[in-house]
Amino acid sequence: MKPLDIGIAGAGPAGLAAALFLSRAGHRVELIERFDAPSPVGSGLLMQPTGLTVLDALGLSPAIHALGNRIERLHGADARSGRTVLDVRYDALAGGRYGLAVHRAALFSTLHDAVAAARLPIRTGITLAKAETRQSRTVLHDDVGEIVGDYDLVVDASGARSQLVAASVVAPKVKELPWGAFWATLDCEGIAHDARALTQRYDAAKVMIGVLPVGRAQAGGARKAAFFWSLKTADADTVKREGLARWKDRIADYWPQTVPFLDQIADWDQLTLARYAHRTALPPHADGIAFIGDSAHSTSPQLGQGANMALLDAAALAHALSSAATLEEALASYADARRSHVRLFQLLSYVFTPFYQSDSRSIAWLRDRLVATVAKIPPAPQILAAIVSGTLADPFTRAGLQECVWLDAALREA
Description:
- Residues 5-342 form the FAD-binding domain.
- The chain is α+β, with helices and mostly antiparallel strands.
- It has a domain at 5-68 and 101-176 and 277-354 and 394-413: FAD/NAD(P)-binding domain, CATH 3.50.50.
- Helix content is 36%, strand content 26%.
- It contains 13 helices and 22 strands.
- A hairpin with a 5-residue loop joins strand 5 (73-78) and strand 6 (84-89).
- The protein is globular, with a radius of gyration of 21 Å.
């Protein structure tokens, strides 16, 4: 296939990764960003072996490891009894896999610095509203109807609120999920916490509190932790009206060791309310647009796959374009490459979420007594580790990737 003119909507991690893969394959790319300056949104996230493999393929493993924090297990306990009800260890699988918790700013800067070094153009302050097909090219319009550009292919990486996918013939049905979370990024230097784990406390399934040590936002910065508390998004305003002090007292009652984190929160503005939705564009392309990341699919964050899936999408799309004879074949190949993996992890997220975010006491009782016991019996530890790693089904081959040699990655991280 000849080199293409490609417009990429959105300069978040998915869009930046796509720009790097596609430009290195010889295509002419430009990024279009709605904000005046590209910037990260959100607190911390957990890079899984899937996303880390994508970054390694881009040559960015040393940079992200220099900022991130290695995570070896996910551990959760009942806040009242102290009983362990979640214990997933990456080393249950052979090969030395692990997670890497990162501040979103660290992931963004790692990718953005690589895009800047490659001198790839980014046009900012442009809100894309619609696309139309003209003589086999895709024309983008802004929110006042002006033409932004026309391309052989548009890659929509503008997220769950994408107007391009909403206006397309594959616009997904959106199911807003009732549970979200308050997030904050806080200092963790000198505070007692498990630096190698995502640690959580539960009250049945109605309360989930977590601490994720995410490393540094930038080189030389202080180490940070992402602190979160799940709740029904419909209850967020009521919680705020009851006052910050009452909210903090409630958390401290559940988990006294979090007080040094809570003491850093002086205002609701330090907390971000994250909302989640389940949606899938089928297929993830239409009328000269390929949808990647949250514009193509989103679900509950319970398994921590969001950013990792977006990076896999970017790699799979570039691989499809490199191995197909026509653009139409490439888009069909991209959809086929990602279909099974995306559907599997959306299903798993849907199944697992009620065990940790719901009003059901019976489900929580089952989790605490049956699931926690079964999870210790082989092959359950291996299966759970594969689910968390994002590798229960092979995500690499169809994306043209070869999984990291984790021993080498660990030495780089050390």
